[in-house]
Every structure is written in structure tokens, then in C-alpha cells.
Design brief:
The protein is mainly alpha-helical. It has nine helices and two strands; from the N terminus they run H-H-H-H-E-E-H-H-H-H-H. It has a two-stranded antiparallel sheet.
Length: about 160
């Protein structure tokens, strides 16, 4: 095609996980953040190849100049589904400073392990509900998470 002959062609490949780990380590060293390599690898393994997400999650988990691993959700998601205590759900998410992606992953584990979603059509509806919220985040992730949990409770 004529336009292609006038343009320079670039091929962009994903960096491999070792390169990304090295880059994150260099950032942490430059910023004088204490860390251990297994914690850095935890984030790279969890979010590879999304470099921005890796750096964002690392940044969010630096407390007092030390990198910490993402903590499991410090509350029982099932309790909120059963009690429909959505106000407390929102408050606990805000207090815990958990990344929305981690809560969505927790929701998916809940769907996979719950008797409530044993029937194929309910399972599919629940997975699609979570996927829809994950792929189109709104302005307020806490509200999105709460709305998603409410929808799951209604299935």
C-alpha cells in the first residue's frame, strides 16, 4: 500500500519478565525503597506483561519506604453477599486500600467455589458480570466493586 511505503514500520514486542523485574528493582533502588526479590517477582508474575500495572501495584504497596506483598483481602467477601451490608463493604474496601483487580479476583474465586453458582447458567452470568465490571472501570472503583457485588448477590 502506498501509505505504508512512506512510513517507518515499528515492531513492538513485550519485554520479558526478567527485564521488567530488573527495571522495577532499579526503580526501587533509585527511590531508596527496601524490598526483597521474591516480593518484586510476585508483582511481575501477577501482572505480566502489563508494566504500568506492575509499577502501579508496587507503588501502592510501599509503606514506610518498604515494599510489601499484596495482602489478602482482610474481610470475608461471602459475609457481605449474604448480609447485603454494602455500606460496610464499601468502607472496608476504602480502609484496606486494596486494588480493585485484587477484589475482582477474589470475587471470581468466590464464584468458582460457591454452591450458589453450581448451575452452568448462573456460573456464566456471574463470570460475565464480573468481567463486564473489570473491562470497563468507571470513575469510582469502589462504587463499581459494590455494584458488582450487589449484582452477584442477585443471581
Amino acid at each position: 500500500p502506498p501509505i505504508k511505503s512512506r512510513c517507518e514500520v515499528f515492531t513492538i514486542q513485550n519485554a520479558d519478565d526478567l527485564d521488567i523485574t530488573e527495571r522495577v528493582v532499579n526503580i526501587l533502588l533509585e527511590e531508596q525503597i527496601k524490598f526483597d526479590l521474591p516480593t518484586v517477582q510476585h508483582y511481575v508474575n501477577q501482572y505480566y506483561p502489563d508494566i504500568r500495572k506492575i509499577i502501579k501495584c508496587v507503588q501502592q504497596n510501599i509503606i514506610d519506604s518498604t515494599l510489601h506483598k499484596t495482602v489478602e483481602i482482610p474481610f470475608n467477601f461471602v459475609d457481605y453477599i449474604e448480609d447485603k451490608n454494602w455500606k460496610q463493604f464499601r468502607q472496608d474496601i476504602i480502609k484496606s486500600r486494596i486494588d480493585a483487580a485484587d477484589v475482582y479476583e477474589h470475587m471470581i474465586r468466590y464464584i468458582d467455589n460457591s454452591n450458589k453458582f453450581k448451575e452452568q447458567d448462573k456460573y456464566e452470568e456471574a463470570i460475565v458480570t464480573v468481567a463486564n465490571y473489570m473491562k470497563s472501570p468507571g470513575i469510582n472503583p469502589v462504587i463499581d466493586l459494590t455494584a458488582c457485588a450487589i449484582e452477584l448477590s442477585r443471581i
